[in-house]
Fold this protein.
Amino acid sequence: MHGIAYNEVHDEFYIPTPLSQAILTFRGAANGEEAPIRVIQGPLTQLDEPQRLAIDPVHNEIVIAQDRNVLVFRRDANGNEAPLRKLTGRDLRPYGAAVDTVRNLLVIPSESTGSGPDRGKFLIFDRTASGEAKPLRVIGGDKSMISRFSGPMAVYPPTGKIIAGMRGETGAELATDECFVGVWNITDNGDVPPHYTIGGPKGVLQMVRGVALNAKHKELIVTDKRLNAVLTFYFPEIF
Amino acid sequence: MIRASRIARTTGLLAVLVVAALGFILVNPGIRPRPGSGFAESSERRPKASRQLVSIQPMMPMGGEMCEWAPASGFARLAASWHGVRTAQSVSARIVSAAADSDVSVEISRPPLRVISDRNPLFSAIAIEPESGMLMVTDQNLFQLLEFNRLDNTPPHARMTEPKRVIGGPLTKAEMMCAVYIDPRTKEVYVGNGDTQRWLPVFSKDARGNVQPDRFLKVEGAVAGMAVDEQRQELFVTIEADKMVLVYKKTASGNDRPIRRLAGEATQLEGPRGIALDTKRNLLFVSNTGNAHSLKYDADITKSPVQIPGTGRFEPASITVHSLDAQGNTAPLRIIEGPNTQLNVPALMAVDEERGELYVANNTGHSVLVFKVTDSGDVKPARIIKGPKSGIKHPSAVALDLKNRELWVTNFGNHTATVYPLTANGDVAPRRTIRSGPADEVNLLIGNPGAVGYDSRREEILVPN
């Protein structure tokens, strides 16, 4: 599993299962071999190896990042149900998704296409963008240090911070010193350096995966595949 | 085994270095501007040219024999970072206003406040070579391949059993090692990488440490299970994501292609993981988790397929039985499936050709199920090894030692490999146990944590694996 999102308002969490092309919703206190309370799955869903997702608790929507598109479902969708919206585009290779419910924006980390450098970028869309909508802004380039995304990312709406893990540009698969978690602003545009980096490059992180935020304690939670560990950093600058 | 005194000396030296390093950190704030970022140089006290000893702390008394794992992963760096915890918090507030300027990039080097990780190996796949007593176990926590002797038995009071040989590190092309095989003649070890890598490295019997494999095969998918037909010199692997069985020459390496493929809707391969061969009866067994979707193949099934959107489904776990020669989109000969089978996320398997029995590591069922190789449909297992005395918890693999009439089981859920009489049934205590960590130490069950969530109501961290 490569994605998870918790919804504090409805006390439930969501998991994409790529091999069975489904989105599972569990109650927040789920434990053991417990069945999901809802399953989105079937021909109408257009689910195609869903890997990562985000929850928008304000507008009651689940955003799914797939290989070539972004699907948006009702939060309480269940069974064989079509998405509310679908965002596509020739250059769209989503590696995750996050919603800024304050500014009504959708952030999509997208990997590069074609034969150029393996470099990603953040695409900032209107939250309700669909079809082949163009992004409002793009953050990426040499100075941005945005290279290869390494897992799900996060947005903290009150401050408009984008938080994402980077693998670096070496192409290393097992571990790399280039790994880090970077922080950008959702209002950034173009080749903007990260406002903060933590855990690297040349830091403790070896192959960062997911990120999550604990706003109450001003903490950043990170998983690392190579360390096979969960690390919590005090990171008040995000909040 | 290293004596405690030696450990104490080594650890004492380490403690001094750590304290010195802490001194270094304390005079060097955990936050520094990236060169050229425009952030003014700090006026804080800077370190001198050499490290400074700031204090000496006595070591805790230690008793008994024990070893420390020398991890092949980046764990050592994590451990070092750990010692610097909380040193940089106090300075963080100073740079907040500076970084509000969009042209400023600030590198924050403060260490993590907390780390959740398991310092002990988590046993995954297992292989036994009875003539030499060579027992190979893969570790999916510290990413190592460990060699033990089949007669090893961890005493109850001991922390763990030290392996005879460890292979691990970035050069090895081995990480999520979910399958392992020992060549009975050369004692070469074949390793199947699941999930994160597509390499199948092969190590000589003398390989040790962070070494490159003697050869490796680039497999057309992440390997979930592996088996070898020594008579025909063929290597079988399951590819879970692409619902395939690929058959290579046993000596294949580099970009060699499979000599045949079993794939397609008719095969009823649905999340294939374990694979076992019965060469006596010319049968191929594949365990399936039931996570299914439809795939689009090219006409000759010669390339990796693509998923067809909206075809995902949850099917019952099963064992499909095929001819050893099966290829293409061919239906199985039989299927073992249904509530009576008790299959629940079946993992790796092994066949006893003499007794005509199929052994299944039934992961989520916390059991080893034994079926007859002739079974079909919704059948009850002939035997079930399960229960608190058995020590079986999240079994991920089984291996058979037919010479010594023993069954080996790796338990991903409790740091152990356990061995039973081949005919064991019910809640049977193991004959011997090899432990990789203290008996009372909790196993975190973290394996390739691909994401993380935070439950703000319960203040809990959610880790999907």
Notes: Chain A touches chain B through 75 residues (CB under 8 Å). Chain A has a mean pLDDT of 94. The first strand of chain A starts at residue 5 and ends at 7. Residues 18 and 49 of chain A are 4 Å apart (CA to CA).
